[in-house]
Amino acid sequence: GYFYDAMEAKLKWTLALADNNIPFRFSGTFSKLLPELCPDSKIAFLCRTKTSYIIRHVFGETFDEELKMELKGTFATLGFDESDNMIDDKQLEIHVRYSNESSDRFS
Fold first, then answer.
1. Cα–Cα distance between 25 and 62 in angstroms, integer?
2. Nearest to residue 55, comparing CAs of 24, 85, 89?
3. Is 33 within 8 Å of 44 (Cβ atoms)?
């Protein structure tokens, strides 16, 4: 039904933002444009805070568990990069590098 279609669209939108490294702020901009772009659509999109919530609390927990299982029993290195972006927001990136035995490569 409508509820599941809307939720699926929001999840796909959130993953597309994350996968393409598009700032979550764009969600708010896009949500304001959507009624003009698709006037017959009943699906309302997300603001920045809802998009961030879905990444952290819906996908984040899943990715966290998958990473923990994959790293169990392996050696890993961590790299940190903290910086200010162009709008003076603090940003911390954490990079994990480890040997993935199932694919015989480094991840």
1. 23
2. 24
3. no
Output the pTM of the full model: 0.55
Q: Which residues pair with 29 in a beta bridge?
A: none
pLDDT tens-digit profile of 53-107?
888 888 888 888 888 888 888 888 888 887 766 666 677 778 888 877 666 665 5
Which amino acid, one-letter code, is at 19? D
Tell me 94's DSSP state: E
Strands 76-84 and 105-106: unpaired
DSSP helix, strand, coil percent of the chain (3-state; round to 5): 50, 20, 30
Q: CA-CA distance, 23 to 13, in Å (whole number)?
A: 12
- The type of residue at 35 is P
The span from the first CA to the last CA of the chain, in angstroms, equals 39
Contact 77, 98 (CB under 8 A): yes
Q: Which two tokens stand for residue 11?
A: 């999840």
Report which of 75, 81, 105 is spatially closest to residue 95, judged by C-alpha positions: 81
